[in-house]
Amino acid sequence: MKRFVNEEGLTLIELLTALTIASLIFASAYGVFLSGIKAYKRIGIENQLRSEADYVIATIMNELYRFAPDGIDTASSTNERITFIKNKQKVIDPDIGLVEEKKVNEQTLTIELQNETILMNGESLNSDNLKIVPEKSSLSYDCVRKEGTVCRSGIVTIVLSVQDRDHDSEDDLLYIEPFSLKTEFGF
């Protein structure tokens, strides 16, 4: 091992230069580390929002499958509300063996966007952290076959623009812009 011939040490200029270079390297590494942690948290929050929005849509689809609606009440449906109705039942006539549709007591299932939440028959489907952005969210339908005020078949479109309630301010370090999820299904 080769030793310094000059045992006088480092000059003040050399020491300050070395400290300055080291502090610049450490500050850069710290900044990259913090940026990585923020990006990791942001991605985690976005994934949680997607999962919750998927859960809301899956809950709606499962309830509609269970309810088996006969159509949409066009008189009470708006851009923020869709009312599904069930007012017919298929019955086999024992005398002639044919299937007939008979009117029964009307049941309804309402899906509604209200106060930054999505409601099904008045009950909130989303968690407290999931914020539905009302300006960018909508419920709509395209009717293919209509009987009076009831749309018997068509396509329902649900557009949910979601955001995290805890990080919805643009000044927040973990601010996440709202993103939209669009679901279409036929009935």
UniProtKB/TrEMBL annotation:
Keywords, in A-Z order: Competence, Membrane, Transmembrane, Transmembrane helix
NCBIfam families, A to Z: IV_pilin_GFxxxE
Location within or outside the cell: Cell surface
Lineage of producing organism: Bacteria, Bacillati, Bacillota, Bacilli, Bacillales
Coiled coil, from the record: none
Transmembrane segments: 12-33
Protein name per Swiss-Prot or TrEMBL: Prepilin-type N-terminal cleavage/methylation domain-containing protein
Keyword Membrane in annotation: yes
Alphabetized InterPro entries for the sequence: N_methyl_site
Broad class of where this protein is predominantly found: other
UniProt-listed GO biological process terms: establishment of competence for transformation
Gene Ontology cellular-component annotations: cell surface
Keyword Transmembrane helix found: yes
